[in-house]
Amino acid sequence: MKKPSIVFFDIDGTLYTEKMELPPSTKKAVKALKDSDVYVAIATGRAPFMFESLRQELGITTFVSFNGSYVVADGEVLDKKPLEAEQVAYLHKEAVESEHPMVFLDHEQAVADVENHAHIHKGMGDLKMDYPPLNKFYYKNNEIYQALLFCGTDAEENYSTNYDTFRFVRWHELAVDVVPSGGSKAEGLRAVANHLGYTMEDTVAFGDALNDMEMLKEAGIGIAMGNALEQVKKKADIVTDPVYEDGIKRGLERIGLI
C-alpha cells in the first residue's frame, strides 16, 4: 500500500492571511490531515523562533526554515547551511557604505545593525514582529543562516552580481532575504522526505511567493494559493482559492486528502 502523503505548507500568504491570522478552516484542515495519518510539515523563509507558536498551535515538529538553510524533522536538526562568515562581513561593509540596514538571524533570534530605522520597522512590523535588538557585529560570533538586506531592486541587482555564495530573494518591497546559494525550500523538502522514508512523488507543497517556486515545481503536487503571484501559479500543478477564502481546505479536498 502506498504511504500517506507528506504535506508542506508555506506560512505567509498560505497558512497565514495578510493580517497574520490562521483561518479556522485551515486549522481544521490541518487537524483532519493529521487524523488521517498524513504527515504535516512547514516550509518557510522564516526563522524557527518566528513561528514557534504556530508549530505549537498546529502540533507540527518538522519544518524547513530559512528557505532551506535550517531543516528539522521531529525535533532533530537534519541540515544547516550558515552563510559564509567572511562574505557576511564583506556584505555588511558594503551595506553600511550604501546606507542599507541589515538584520541578522540565527535559529534563536534576530538582531539589527542599526537602531530605529524606518525600513526595518516596516518590514518586521509586516511580519507582526518587534524591532530586533541592536547588535551590529552579531555575525562575528554566531552562525547566521539568513540576513535581511533592506534595499531597492536596483541595489539588489548590484549585490547579487558581487556575491556568488549568496542568493538574494525578495520577500518585501523594501527587503531581500540573503541565503546560501544553492539552497532552497525544494532542497529542504528533499532532505525531510529522504529522512522520513518518502519520495518526492509523495510530497505535496502549498505556497504563494517567489521563494516557493522551486518547491512547487519539484514537489509531487505543487499547489499555489489563489492569492499567489502569477509567476508562482505558473509553476504549480494546481491553483486553489486564496488563503482567506478557505484555500487550504479546498486545495486538500481537490486532491482527495481530506
Automatic annotation (TrEMBL):
Keyword annotations: Hydrolase
Recorded GO CC terms: cytosol
GO MF annotation terms: magnesium ion binding; phosphatase activity
One Pfam family hit: Hydrolase_3
Signal peptide (from-to): none
Family matches, as NCBIfam families: Cof-subfamily, HAD-SF-IIB
Protein name (database record): Cof-type HAD-IIB family hydrolase
Species annotation: Salibacterium salarium
